[in-house]
């Protein structure tokens, strides 16, 4: 489907766009099913939070309407929204008069091997560490060189995702996923106040688990915690949940809580 | 002057450009005098180092020729080169077949108040800290949200630059400059192995000072070191050297080594 820039069909952005110059902006990757953007409210909520923290004056009502119109036209697939701080000349200083630029792109539904969801995956243990920057932590911003470098660490098909630690050795997330572990019946995911992307599916899973009365915790996770976990899985808003079977010398079974949450998430993504 | 993309006049980049999507690329800002790119070899050297570290397969011979041709046409002003990892579809994975994209933009000579160079400037003490990421440290890459946030901390004309520390409180650099201090005759600038941009003018000043027999040191700098400095200045490849007269409660005179180096740098930028 043809891309839109500021609501009009377009293929490009001007060279003065601050997204290109500095990665000065945010993005959202949204699953679209039957013309409907899945978990739209959570995507919009994260986007608003990002705009607030980066002082991007976006029209959120307009963005919502555009996403819905674009998704309706796309039907089934993946919608990507990029917001940038519009144009500026040389220098980091912000031109307060420049309107935020809205880019919408559509692509076909993600085509991952079905075994990722059923049998589970292995994580590549990335050497690339996430830098600790509280001002950017949690946001899905356009400064993603760490993820680019980490993703280039493996090419084999044996590893479907990578495991990323922060500079202090805490277990944070995958390269394009959040990570959960289960230990003694508690669902645990990393605190993302120093680094990492606070995924929309992560938020949904935390909320669903709490509603089911499952104990949940958001906390620092060590490699030892990970090793001792009863179950491990990764998630994102496009593929849902993949059980994690192994990473380096560690291994885990696919457990009952992972399967239960997969059922809930599959219903979300398949309706 | 009209911009070039891959050697042709153009105003835009495709929406799939990885510079826009992830800040996946590098840039150089080059002063141009009389059709000549100033400190070209140092700019090319840093760019090559950046390409090596980010695994960007650029044609450096072609880039050199394009910069020279563009500068000759520009005459006097500032040339900006952006290299991106070209196009890709969804996902952080690299498409090894996608050629690196070259963007060249030109603008008028920088117009800073002349007093910045003669009288000196004050630095705004930025609250924004630089995250420590050795994989990216020193590079002039396109992930510059920290600089955007820091530059937005002050709007008044009283502060011409900002002072940035790293997460551990070390003095690193300005928002768009490197920082030097002089103490007991030694010229000192921050070690940039954890964060910061290794500026071309910084490298030139270090080399010139060494050639003159001035003791130089690249080391960690504390706020106490800064406070006790005999002279402080900032530099970049466009404006040269600005003496720093104050930052928060700290103040410094404009010293003789600053004036001596200004003379050398002015000759470079004015020829």
TrEMBL record, chains A, B:
Its Enzyme Commission number(s) read 4.1.3.38
Q: Name one Pfam family in it.
A: Aminotran_4
UniProt entry tagged with the keyword Lyase: yes
Transmembrane segments annotated in the record for this chain: none
Enumerate the cofactors the protein uses.
pyridoxal 5'-phosphate
Q: In which pathway does it act?
A: Cofactor biosynthesis; tetrahydrofolate biosynthesis; 4-aminobenzoate from chorismate: step 2/2
The record lists the catalysed reaction(s) as: 4-amino-4-deoxychorismate = 4-aminobenzoate + pyruvate + H(+)
Cellular component terms per the entry's GO annotation: cytosol
A molecular function GO annotation: pyridoxal phosphate binding
Query: What superkingdom heads the lineage?
Result: Bacteria
Which keywords does this Swiss-Prot/TrEMBL entry list? Folate biosynthesis, Lyase, Pyridoxal phosphate
- According to its UniProt record, which protein family does this protein belong to? Belongs to the class-IV pyridoxal-phosphate-dependent aminotransferase family.
Functional description taken from the UniProt entry: Involved in the biosynthesis of p-aminobenzoate (PABA), a precursor of tetrahydrofolate. Converts 4-amino-4-deoxychorismate into 4-aminobenzoate (PABA) and pyruvate.
Record's protein name? Aminodeoxychorismate lyase
Annotated organism of origin: Pseudomonas trivialis
